[in-house]
Amino acid sequence: MPKQVRLRRGTTAQHAAFTGAEGEVTYDTNKKVLVVHDGVTPGGKPLEGFVLLNPGNPLLSQVIHSIVSIAGGDSESTAFSVVGSSGFNHVSINETASVKRLHISQEQLVFGGNVVLNFGTYGSKRITLTGDVAFSALGFGFGSRLELRILCDGTTRNLTWPAGWKFVGATAPASIVANKAALLQLWAFGLGESDIVAQYAVQP
To answer: Is residue 83 part of a domain?
Structure first.
């Protein structure tokens, strides 16, 4: 029978309090991964977060814990190609032989007197007004974009906007008429309220 070689092992917590010798390899019994040590770093470096080139299960989710940079491609060849449906944050892309579709996940907002539009969550939102409302925003930055469908109930409702927003095409609306639908689109070109450009269109 061949000889068996076993590495020193311990839990994740035990590793956190352990500094291995330079070049030493141990085994994390919680994460089920090897840990490489350099003689000075407590806990060492767990060998995790790597992409498996052949995971065996095409539905197995794999996470990359680092920035990914892909070089290559030109005007005729793509540098990045995905076969099958793809999701990017709250945007999914699906292509078949007959259908090419870009889908933005949508968020239903809960009505309140003050509604915060978070650029950091879903890029498409909807809300039904049952009273007057004051809008504000957070989570925006260079290149952020957001769209909001507004439905008004059976009563005309007053609308209040941040003073810094710049409305284009028409002035900022003061109200929305009963039973009307409106679309608000926001673009952020910086980190301040004054960097947000807004466009509002309402059902005739």
So the answer is: no
How many domains does the chain divide into? 2
Q: Could you tell me the strand order of the sheet in which 114-118 lies?
A: 114-118, 133-138, 157-160, 175-176
pLDDT exceeds cutoff 70 at 179: yes
Asked whether residue 112 falls in the same domain as residue 193, the answer is: yes
Beta-bridge mates of residue 116: 136
Whether 172 is covered by a domain: the verdict is: yes
CA 144 vs CA 20, 109, 121, 141: distances in Å: 45, 19, 11, 6
What single letter denotes the amino acid at residue 60? Answer: L
CA distance 146 to 198: 10
Spatial separation of the C-alpha atoms in residues 93 and 86, rounded to whole Å? 5
| Cross-strand bridge partners of residue 46 | 35
- Which domain, by its residues, includes 195? 106-202
Quote the pTM value. 0.58
Q: Are residues 120 and 59 in the same domain?
A: no
Per-residue pLDDT reduced to its tens digit, 45-55:
998 877 666 66
Measured CA to CA in angstroms, residue 70 lies from 22, 25, 79, 140 at distances of 33, 31, 7, 26
Cα dihedral: 51, 55, 60, 66 (round 10): 0
* Domain co-membership, 62 together with 110: no
Euclidean distance between the first and final Cα of the chain, in Å?
84
Helices (H) and strands (E) in the chain, counts: 1, 17
Distance CA 131, CA 156 (A): 8
